[in-house]
Amino acid sequence: MNKKIGNRTVQLKNEPRIISAFSIVGPREGEGPLKQYFDEILKDELYETESYEKAEAKILTNTIQEAIKRANLKNKDIDYLLAGDLLNQIISSSFAARQLEIPFLGLYGACSTMTESLSLGSILIDSDIGEYVVCATASHFCSAERQFRFPLEYGSQRSQTCQWTVTGSGAMVLGKGGNFPKITYVTTGVVKDYGIKDANNMGAAMAPAAVDTLYNHFKDTGRKPEYYDVIVTGDLGSIGKEITQKLLLEYGYDIRNNYMDCGDMIFNNQAQGTDAGGSGCGCSASVAAGYFYKKLMRKEIKSILLISTGALMSTTSSLQGESIPGIAHAVSIEM
Amino acid sequence: MNKKIGNRTVQLKNEPRIISAFSIVGPREGEGPLKQYFDEILKDELYETESYEKAEAKILTNTIQEAIKRANLKNKDIDYLLAGDLLNQIISSSFAARQLEIPFLGLYGACSTMTESLSLGSILIDSDIGEYVVCATASHFCSAERQFRFPLEYGSQRSQTCQWTVTGSGAMVLGKGGNFPKITYVTTGVVKDYGIKDANNMGAAMAPAAVDTLYNHFKDTGRKPEYYDVIVTGDLGSIGKEITQKLLLEYGYDIRNNYMDCGDMIFNNQAQGTDAGGSGCGCSASVAAGYFYKKLMRKEIKSILLISTGALMSTTSSLQGESIPGIAHAVSIEM
After folding, report:
1. I need a surface site. Which of A305, A314, B145, B298 has the fewest CB within 10 A?
2. Measured between alpha carbons, how far is A334 from B305 in angstroms, rounded to an integer?
3. B100 and B26, same domain (yes or no)
4. Which SUPFAM superfamilies match (chains A, B) (predicted)?
5. Domain boundary at B114, B148, B175, which?
6. Looking at the complex, does the CB of residue A190 fall below 8 Å from at least one CB of chain B?
7. What is the CATH number of the domain that holds A67?
8. CA triplet B204, B209, B211: central angle to 5 degrees?
């Protein structure tokens, strides 16, 4: 009777559409390989505010607002805003919601937030709970560094396995009908923790969760990796990406031919000094809303499986000796 | 075509049922007026762990596990766990999810989390996205004090408008059919911020959000306050409660005859020294899963409107001079 297929996947029979998307990135991201795909590139990390946290909230607010405008809608047309971010108590999202006056459901999935919001958002549209839902998230290099590691002013040395939190955001408006990319399946993640405790090696901590969600997606849907033009994880970076394709091969799925990672795509690590690549909620959000949305709309790609990946620790849990739980949610988006 | 009525409310035509509930509270809550209704009362705040944060995660894990057992289900029967908490990066929920191996969607709604999770959970069941969903949250006095105010060891003096974060939790298993309380309507909140900056007066900061959600619920459903046996807010405490009923009267709705507040109910403030009353995600969660669920099952009450209320600031936003945004989500639960 229910719409689940297999253990973890929901088939969206009405195929909710992504009717618009918008992305903003910081200056460094705007110098990377995907620069031509982002909708707005900031001149500086403060974005005319007084703090990095206020800048992050402004980035998110403007991204959502522009995505709504692009869909030719007003804020009052939107039934739900599903958003979250990395900051303590998701203040970027709450302060964005304060300005937008849209019914707000706050999420926390760390860097998996983009697909968490797309999962719930597409289910809401598919089930006829309202007409339009906005799914969004953002992150900011400077606010994340000082919250999770050290204030930038310390000039701490970074480990080579470190990832670079993306200053960026992505918002998508979901609706019904029209010639837009459709969300066809949603596979929800289970928390996986293989005991990694190094907060400077998040790719390794999140890879098992990505593998588990990918494995279950293929099993539940009966699809093979080659069904998709691109399988793209959120922010595993160069190290986590390698682990993921190796582990999946052990489960019998070879994704090496069509596998990408947003964290691996957004920077030119060697030239830009971004260590193991991009991370943060804004990484998969900006790459999905910027690069992949345009590729799908232009029909240069016809299907992607997007798996945003999150590391669910806090500084407190790490200081108390806990390892890093990972999670990953997948959505298939098809033109 | 969609299931929304009015601006903010969803009518759940299949009326998902709360098929089981479980609550755990700390020692102080276990000495309060509702002590006979809680399912487990802790002997001490550490719950045989090494830190208050680990205790909070253990409380939440055990509450969810016991709620699932009471429903005669196994973890593998549960389609989704929707949970969140007050700690940075919702570590209590993520670490609970790590142990339970249930597909996990993390939420952040501060103290509004219980009705946020019930809103999304009941929509998932109503829309046939799976058979069983667990909605849960927890808070802990000691972990919240040290995160949001001061470590207890400082012995800081408390303001009289301060509320006392409840050490406690509540979990509800939602399913279909059976002689259980039904969730009939869900009204989602918009962020409201009237400029209150005093983190020691959260009741006043959250009251406008509660009023807004209540007003929209009555308007959307056409119901009058007297329809419900009890209208109960989450954790406005004695001060926020008074503001709420006064403000609503100005909007033409008199809730004075059947209005309660979980924060006002859980302690005997005068005798227990709990200032303006209880607060925290665990406040409305434990009172709803403990007291009200039993009252409904025993048919001593036939309908409640539960409105958990959240204050969406962080210590960083407060230090940066931001006021406190509030939110409130309402669910009607009827026998």
Report:
1. B298
2. 41
3. yes
4. Thiolase-like
5. B175
6. yes
7. 3.40.47.40
8. 90
Q: Are residues A81 and A101 in the same domain?
A: yes
**Which of A89, A109, A124 lies closest to B313 in CB terms?**
A89
- Cβ of residue B4 closer than 8 Å to a chain A Cβ: yes
C-alpha B160/C-alpha B71 separation (Å) is 41
Minimum distance, in Å, between the CA of residue A128 and any CA atom of chain B: 5
Residue type for B192, please? K
CB nearest A191 (choices: B104, B127, B317): B104
- A146 touches B: beta carbon within 8 Å: no
**How do residues B239-263 score in pLDDT, each as one tens digit?**
999 999 999 999 999 999 999 999 9
Q: Are residues A236 and A160 in the same domain?
A: no
- Contact pairs from chain A to chain B, CB under 8 Å: 194
For an interface test with A, which of B13, B78, B95, B105 has the most A Cβ atoms less than 10 Å from its Cβ? Answer: B105
Instruction: Give CA–CA dist A248/B281, Å, rounded.
Output: 39
pLDDT in tens, chain A (335 residues): 578 999 999 999 999 999 999 999 999 999 999 999 999 999 999 999 999 999 999 999 999 999 999 999 999 999 999 999 999 999 999 999 999 999 999 999 999 999 999 999 999 999 999 999 999 999 999 999 999 988 888 888 888 888 899 999 999 999 999 999 999 999 999 999 999 998 788 888 899 999 999 999 999 999 999 999 999 999 999 899 999 999 999 999 999 999 999 999 999 999 998 888 999 999 999 999 999 999 999 999 999 999 999 999 999 999 999 999 999 999 999 99
Rg (CA), chain B: 18
Q: How far apart are CA A86 and CA A76, in angstroms?
A: 27
Which among B1, B100, B104, B142 is the top mutation candidate for probing chain A, defined by the most A β-carbons within 10 Å of its own β-carbon? B104
Among candidates A91, A105, A314 on the partner chain, residue whose Cβ is nearest the Cβ of B87: A314
The SS3 call for residue B200 is coil
Cα separation, A55 vs A49, whole angstroms: 6
Which among B135, B306, B188 has a CA at the least distance from the CA of A130?
Answer: B188
Q: Do both B160 and B292 map to the same domain?
A: no
